[in-house]
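During the first year of the project, the team set up a workflow for recording each protein of interest as an amino acid sequence followed immediately by a discrete structure-token representation. This format lets reviewers and collaborators read both layers of information side by side without switching files. As required by the reporting guidelines, we include two representative entries from the current panel. The first entry is reproduced here exactly as it appears in our internal archive.
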Amino acid sequence: MNTRTRVLIAEDEPLAAEALADWVREMPQLELLAVCADGESALTAIRLHRPDLVLMDIQMPGLTGLQVLRALGDDETRPAVIFTTAYDEHALAAFELHAVDYLLKPFSHERFVEAVDHATQIAAPTVEALQAPPTEPLTRVLVRDQGKIFPLQVEQIEHLRSDNKYTALASRGRSFLVRLPIAAFEQRLDPMRFLRVQRACIVNLDFVESMTPDDNSQLIVQMRDGTRITASREVSKKLREQSI
């Protein structure tokens, strides 16, 4: 019985594809099935070969890597996927699709091995997790820090503050900048835990210390980390009406 993890590569840059193939061949626990140079051939090859793991670029001719993964739907043979890309703005979408990891080019061989080791450990039980409906609240978000991308548990996010393009996620005294507007998060956050107190700010009620009205009857939200946020007039009114 073949116990090696069967791998398919989807990468349109020849040098990058060759490097990935070499790294896969160097790992005895992996078996390289095929290398595809565009999204449509990757989708066909995944359905044909049924690999355990796919190393896939996001920006490819034809279908993007995200489109390939969406096209697979809830197929029970859907593989674990590690995205390899030069663009970090797709991290949230990738994680919503339950990608195992997200390697930001240029990445080191050490980082590649780390991602593959993680993927091979969870490849077998991932099928059920991959089928989670996209309408469910987010439970994790991919964030970038010191050249690495890692999952941040949504329940650990204390507050989110945004301009029109970026959102800063505050957690445990640190701030992680994500290249997405706050509206991209709002519809996917648990409304029983997260509250949008103003246009550019959402707070996690589990981390709110107090709410105190100011001279204009707007509530000042005091967070446990010391951050003070003024709630909008409309939100302040609703909160006062809901208080017992």
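The second entry, processed by the same pipeline in the following quarter, appears below.
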Amino acid sequence: MKVDRRRILETALELLNEVGVDALSTRLIAERLGVRQPALYWHFKNKRALLDAINGEILARAQDARTPRPGETWQAFLRRNARSFRAALLSYRDGARVHAGTEAAPDDLDHVEIQILHLAAAGFSPGAALQLFVAVSRFVVGCVLEEQASPITGSTEQARLDEAARAYPALAEAIAYYRTSDHAGLFERGLDLIVRGAEAELVSAPD
């Protein structure tokens, strides 16, 4: 029985949520589809190619802030784009691990061009604009990696760290403050630091 690319990706996403990226394999996908494993190689030559396609599908389905709105400031767009990217990676199990190491798809570069032009209109050079988008992207991926791998609140590991930190007053106070923040709050704080840093750099840049 022949299977098309769409059915393979649908099945791969289902299995990703069920077993995670480490256990996901072309063999498992073929078994779920009821076909022989070589049938998948007509569409994906190896697991890396499959993961790249899965990443593209996740972003296409869930990232809804790829281009700026009319009149939107670069700061507002950067924040909205980052939040949308985070939500997309969180929408599937191991989403950040699937995305890590991928490149922008050649047929999706129109979005990147629009993004860079939007920041260039605000005074960034194309190179600086791309660097900023890369910095935000890596920050988002790192945040989601931590969020999807973090221990359960109140775990033995956290309790052991908190107990050891009592010997260090400043650190104990800092950790207690950190424990009051959830993943979304920490993400927003870090994103704010990046945006404000970019604002300061733009203002101080020579004409």
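For the second entry, the following points were noted during internal review. Residues 119 and 125 are 8 Å apart (CA to CA). The mean pLDDT is 91. Both points are flagged for discussion at the upcoming steering committee meeting.
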